[in-house]
Amino acid sequence: MVGNKKSNGNQIIYLCLGLLLTIMGIYLNYQNILNGEFPNALMLLALGINQLLLACLSPHIFPRDERAKEIMGKAMTINYYVLFISILVLFLAIGPFGFLTLDATQVLIVLFCIMAITIPGTMVIYSKIIWVF
User: Fold this and answer.
1) Are 48 and 24 in contact (CB under 8 A)?
2) How many distinct structural domains can be found in the chain?
3) What CA–CA distance (Å, rounded) separates 101 from 93?
4) Residue 29 CA from chain centroid, whole number
5) What is the pLDDT along the chain (133 residues), one digit of tens a residue?
6) Where in the sequence is the domain holding 74, given as residue range(s)?
7) pTM, full prediction
8) Distance of alpha carbon 2 from its chain centroid, rounded?
């Protein structure tokens, strides 16, 4: 019962923060996206999406049992490959093919955003798959 109250409290906090950060991220990035520029507040939007995904995930990972450990372990394995594929795609897009022009901080922002979204995203997918089986 205590874990259920904790997960419900965390879920509400994640949901409120996620909505706030996503709305702020959309508002701050809207003009840059329309102008075809790199969005300055892209990390804010990624963190908002991260919090919304954690709100969906909260009931599945806060009772720290074997199921939660399995979800986290499988998600981290997939994210290891996602990170290397993302680095490869960014390297090819910026280097040899050159259809993107990003500076070093923008590349790091893109990599951060990919990891901030894919870690809880894959956990949500695995929690639904493990829930079914």
Assistant:
1) yes
2) 1
3) 8
4) 17
5) 445 666 677 889 999 999 999 999 999 999 998 998 889 889 999 999 999 999 988 887 777 778 888 888 888 889 999 999 999 998 888 887 778 888 889 999 999 999 999 999 998 888 877 655 5
6) 2-132
7) 0.83
8) 28
